[in-house]
Specification:
39% helix, single chain, 340 residues, five-stranded parallel β-sheet, 11% strand, alpha/beta, binds zinc ion, 10 helices, 10 strands, TIM Barrel, five-stranded mixed β-sheet
């Protein structure tokens, strides 16, 4: 069992974390031909998001799959860890789908992302974080903490190619395994995105998740109406020295089918932001760049409405927009000051 202690931040804060994975996060359940438009659209969506983050002073955390950090196939294959996860459901492993990796980012924009990583790093105050090296699933049967450690070592090496020391992690499919937090802190990480404290958002293995029709339906409805009220949230330290920065909400992409309800979706987020600001707590929004890969204009303009609200709350309540690593550094220095 991990022990944790909630921390009250002195100022309300708004966090954004992005699970940047291109096809590596989807290969086990989506066909490329069905999703290539979203994935190609990422190359427009990321610059659009970066420009909004710069304009509104948002220090976003880009949790990036390590396999995206390479310029070509040879470099990537040289960087693969020798110890690999042996999931019982072997199709979950990205190592079982390596034969379809192309030569480089020009010829295969679905498996390589170095030019996009450079754009993120060229934008002020963005944090490059990890989404593990191989889009690793910590709650699936067959893998072990040793193979997870090997994955993290590869992720750390990948980031070093860009001169980045990793500080934060987002677990793929939000499968945060409390038993693996020690491995994260041993790899130099200090923060992770936990799950919203509500049964609808409790992480599952992929098999269980597939069967959870009702849960998935309620999660969809929760984007438009208050189904799961999670209340004010705070980060908390656990005994492994990692800061749990819980997610508040997945930012659902624009849907043409549900466009009549867009105002409800926006109000839901604006209200939650208001509650977080008034209670000096945190609001943590997350999504994938590929969610903005289609309907990019609508998605970016929806994001801008959110950021306008955040700007108003900054003026009224002093809401800040730190990255996960910045929030971790702040809370550690806060706790140290409090302990004196
Ligand atoms: Zn993912």
């Amino acid at each position: 069992m991990t022990h944790s202690a909630a921390i009250n931040a002195s100022k309300p804060c708004f966090l954004v974390s992005l699970d940047f994975e291109l096809f590596w996060g989807l290969k086990d359940h989506v066909r490329l031909e069905d999703y290539s438009e979203n994935l190609l659209g990422v190359r427009k969506a990321i610059p659009g998001m970066l420009s909004l983050f710069r304009q509104y002073g948002v220090h976003a955390t880009w949790a990036t799959v390590g396999m995206l950090f390479y310029e070509n196939r040879d470099q990537l294959f040289d960087a693969l860890p020798s110890l690999k996860p042996a999931y019982v459901q072997s199709h979950l492993s990205n190592y079982s789908h390596l034969s379809d990796v192309g030569e480089n980012e020009d010829s295969d924009p679905f498996h390589f992302g170095a030019s996009l990583i450079r754009k993120i790093l060229d934008t002020p105050s963005q944090e490059l974080a990890t989404h593990t090296f191989s889009h690793y699933y910590c709650l699936e049967a067959g893998q072990t903490v040793e193979t997870f450690r090997a994955d993290l070592v590869a992720a750390v090496q990948a980031a070093k190619r860009f001169g980045v020391t990793l500080k934060s992690i987002v677990f793929p499919r939000n499968q945060s395994n409390p038993l693996y937090l020690r491995a994260c802190s041993d790899a130099g990480l200090v923060a992770y995105r936990g799950n919203a404290p509500h049964f609808l958002y409790r992480p599952n293995s992929s098999a269980k998740e597939k069967r959870s029709y009702i849960k998935r339906g309620l999660r969809l409805a929760d984007n438009y109406a208050p189904i799961a009220d999670i209340g004010p949230q705070s980060p908390s330290h656990n005994s492994e020295g990692m800061l749990d920065i819980p997610a508040s909400r997945f930012l659902r992409p624009y849907s043409r089918r549900l466009r009549r309800f867009e105002h409800l979706r926006l109000h839901r987020i604006q209200n939650e932001l208001e509650v977080a600001a008034r209670s000096r707590s945190l609001y943590h929004l997350w999504w994938h760049p590929h969610n903005f890969g289609i309907n990019t204009t609508e998605n970016l303009s929806f994001l801008e409405r959110i950021l306008e609200k955040v700007a108003a709350l900054r003026d009224t309540y002093g809401m800040t927009c730190p990255s996960m690593a910045e929030l971790a550094a702040e809370t550690i220095s806060h706790s140290a000051a409090g302990a004196k």
